Amino acid sequence: MATKKVVVLPGDDEAPQTVFAALEVMRALKLDIEFIEFPVGEKWVRGETDKAARAAIDSSDSTLFGSTSGKTTAINYLRWGRQTYANVRPCRYLKGFRSPLAHPDGIDYVIVRENLEDLYLGLEGPLEALAPLHLHSRILRADLNTSERGKFAIKVITERKTRQVARFAFELARKRKAQGRPGKVTCTSKYNMLRESDGLFRQLVEETAADYPDIAYEQFIVDDFARRVVQSPHALDVVVMPNLYGDILSDAAAGTIGGLGLAPSGCYGDDYAYFESVHGTAPDILGKGVINPTATMLSAAMMLEYLGFNEASRRFDQALRAVYAEGSALTVDQGGRAGTAEFTRAVIARL
Fold first, then answer.
1. How far apart are CA 220 and CA 229, in angstroms?
2. Does residue 36 sit in helix, strand or coil?
3. What angle is formed at CA 71 by the lines to CA 68 and CA 76, rounded to 5 degrees?
4. Of 111, 125, 244, 254, which shows the fewest CB atoms inside 10 Å?
5. Distance, CA of 242 to chain centre
């Protein structure tokens, strides 16, 4: 295997500490990876650093990204520039996670969030700008009153991007089935009310299901699905949904296993993928050395699998499992007293 190139974007505030922790573990694995490191967000120079980061991303095999509060601006290029349309957010309980549920054992499913459109295109503005469109409300059975002072946001669901993420979800379910998981895809959106947009999403996922007769399929209205995340998460395998719902419900899912510090993710396109934790930059604990790096470490393990380092990915994952099962080096959010550095040393010791 040729040397892999990985861009490292540490992110902002306290997020870089989780990235540096994940890097320590990967370096301990002694893999044939060249890490191309960029400065933390506070040292990011817009324009100059942006250009260098885009060039590095284009010549790399993947990127490990910390969270950003707006200082590190390369995230837009990683997502829309590289068309990473499938945001994969696993929700898996490990023994030792501080879950609020009475019986979290066995929770192991993946949210596949469409990553490029929906409300996240940022198409917003003053309500009066819609006046020339003479929009008619199906619900109100009246024209939209654009004389009110207010704002609008446009939700976009396209056939091409929905079919892309639907196929990704079914292929992932097929892969998981080969590993002993149920082999099921669940689709959710607000298709009962948003019949044109969310209705199209549901329709296209349902059509895609016909191409995968070996994979079970079900669909739920998103508010009903939100209940299921809490009440019956063990019944889920692969869940596919539009962008906004995926962002919100993956945070809720993380809460059921023990918090955002445990929630990894990867964003996949046809020819590139980058990996980051689901959590934010944690400015409230900046400099305290107590941030939990588990989410970023799990994201790094996902990246290693994507790069073809399957055995290293498995070792990384098993080391994390061992640390949580043993329980003596856990961070404060998981009921322990260890700082980030102590937790990282414990993971390395168990490789």
1. 12
2. strand
3. 65
4. 125
5. 13
CA-closest candidate to residue 240, choices 177, 151, 167, 174:
167
Dihedral sign for Cα 107, 111, 82, 272, please.
positive
* Pure H helices in 138-196: 159-178
Whether the CB-CB separation of 334 and 261 falls below 8 Å is answered with yes
CB burial string 191-219: b at 16+ within 10 A, e below: beebeebbbbbbebbeebbeebeebebeb
Q: List, as one string, the DSSP characters of 222-245.
A: HHHHHHHHHH-GGG-SEEEE-HHH
Rounded Cα gap, residues 194 and 200, in angstroms: 9
Which stretch of DSSP H or E encloses residue 345? helix 340-349
pLDDT score for 177:
98
State residue 1's pLDDT score: 75
Average pLDDT of 59-65?
98
pTM of the full predicted structure?
0.96
Phi, psi of 298, rounded to the nearest 5 degrees: -65, -35
Per-residue pLDDT for 172 more than 80?
yes
Report the Cα 81 to chain-centroid distance in Å: 17
Write out the two tokens for 183.
């082999």
Give the pLDDT score at 217: 98
pLDDT, mean of residues 223-237: 98
Three-state SS at 102: coil
Closest CA to 249 of 266, 227, 226: 226
What is the DSSP secondary structure assignment for residue 331, as one 8-state letter? B
Work out the average pLDDT over 195-216.
98
Give the whole-angstrom CA distance, residue 171 versus residue 251: 24
137: pLDDT strictly greater than 80: yes
SS3 213: coil
DSSP character at residue 3: P
Residue 46 sits at φ, ψ, to 5 deg, of -65, 140
Distance CA 297, CA 139 (A): 46
Question: Distance between CA atoms of 16 and 114, rounded to whole angstroms?
Answer: 26
